[in-house]
Amino acid sequence: LALVERERDLEGVSIVVSAGGTREPIDPVRFLGNRSSGRQGVAIARAAADRGARVTLVAAHLDADVRPDPRVEVVSVGTADELGRAMDATAPGADVIVMAAAVADYSVAEVSAHKLRKQDSPGGLTLQLTENRDVVAGLVAARREGQTIVAFAAETVADDDELLERARTKAARKGVDLLAANAVGWTRGFEALDNALTIVDRDGRVVATASGSKDDTAHALLDAIAAVRVSPGS
Ligand code: CTP
Ligand code: CA
């Protein structure tokens, strides 16, 4: 019975999930990017649909083998700015927002209209970057009553203590209801099919840890979201 109940525990709940990695153009043929595949965010979207939620996925450059569930409405974006606009447009109708996307912190100050030529910058090239706005901070500032906002943090850390410390600091700084932190590095986190999450609340309490497939960690995160929605701030 418990299994049946959990299966549809998000019936009637509207969720917006961002996934993937934004790309910031340098010129018509080049970009600054990151290694996010979109796999964890797409898994969260699918798991939420399985549990009865109405799901919108704001997708930035998902890997080719990462395919959103057909029940999920997909909004495709490219840059951090586009992702921010899509989130701003969809957030007002959402009960739950999960920011799993890797959003570029900077964009190129002056995008070249033509392909940069080596002869124009002999010996080396300096790109001027401008800081992008913090999308999730804007969503938190505009949060309406009863809305649950979840951020992610992919961190390079020496050990679990450092991961927890960084997760706590970031959750407090962002003002999100939950923050899911995972350790990443040259060989962990991105291409991997498995993941390990430490989930903290706004006060820095560890509400769950989960490891396994990205479907397993997606369900664990949704469990934690369902729990804060039942007893917010407890
Ligand atoms: N995020 C965002 N807008 C940005 C950058 C990040 O909404 N411009 C979101 C991410 O989607 C994630 C959370 O903020 O849910 C944390 O992202 P992270 O890169 O870890 O945090 P930053 O605040 O950018 O701090 P830093 O990169 O310096 O660690
Ligand atoms: Ca960042």
TrEMBL record:
Residues annotated to bind CTP: D105, K115, F152, K170, K174
E.C. code: 4.1.1.36, 6.3.2.5
Recorded metabolic or biological pathway in which this protein acts: Cofactor biosynthesis; coenzyme A biosynthesis; CoA from (R)-pantothenate: step 3/5; Cofactor biosynthesis; coenzyme A biosynthesis; CoA from (R)-pantothenate: step 2/5
Necessary cofactors: FMN; Mg(2+)
Protein name: Coenzyme A biosynthesis bifunctional protein CoaBC
Cofactor descriptive note: Binds 1 FMN per subunit.
Function: Catalyzes two steps in the biosynthesis of coenzyme A. In the first step cysteine is conjugated to 4'-phosphopantothenate to form 4-phosphopantothenoylcysteine, in the latter compound is decarboxylated to form 4'-phosphopantotheine. Catalyzes two sequential steps in the biosynthesis of coenzyme A. In the first step cysteine is conjugated to 4'-phosphopantothenate to form 4-phosphopantothenoylcysteine. In the second step the latter compound is decarboxylated to form 4'-phosphopantotheine.
Keyword Metal-binding: yes
Family the entry assigns: In the C-terminal section; belongs to the PPC synthetase family. In the N-terminal section; belongs to the HFCD (homo-oligomeric flavin containing Cys decarboxylase) superfamily.
GO molecular function: phosphopantothenate--cysteine ligase activity; phosphopantothenoylcysteine decarboxylase activity
Catalysed conversion reaction: N-[(R)-4-phosphopantothenoyl]-L-cysteine + H(+) = (R)-4'-phosphopantetheine + CO2; (R)-4'-phosphopantothenate + L-cysteine + CTP = N-[(R)-4-phosphopantothenoyl]-L-cysteine + CMP + diphosphate + H(+)
Residue range from the parent sequence: 170 to 403 of 403
Region Phosphopantothenate--cysteine ligase, annotated ranges: 15-234
Keywords: Decarboxylase, Flavoprotein, FMN, Ligase, Lyase, Magnesium, Metal-binding, Multifunctional enzyme
